[in-house]
Predict the structure.
Amino acid sequence: MRYRDAKGVHRLPPLLEDATVGALVQALAEATGLPAGSFNCKAGFPPASLNLADGNATLRSLGLKNGDTVVVEPGAGCLAQPPPPAVAPAPTAPSPASALGGVVLRRAIADDNSCLFNAVGCVQAAARL
């Protein structure tokens, strides 16, 4: 198994697929010199965060196997699942069309390979009216 950090790609000591998540975290901590839990871990393509909260889970249960690369980034820590980002509602402002006394018309355009051409054609047809 390999890990990637800011210094490049390196090999980890051999870990079996039945090894625990705790053993992986300990091996990464020893290899990177970072304290256990002070780095974020990602794996797969595209890289997705690993949930390493259960130290007794196996690497196989995370979908990791021999030859995979784990991306290690210094951060808040991979032992706790990061909280979902808070989404603030977008502020509502009067539209320019209503300020000028106009009308805004929204039309659904099929999302196929010619959607741009259909949208331009729709605007041109409305301009002729």
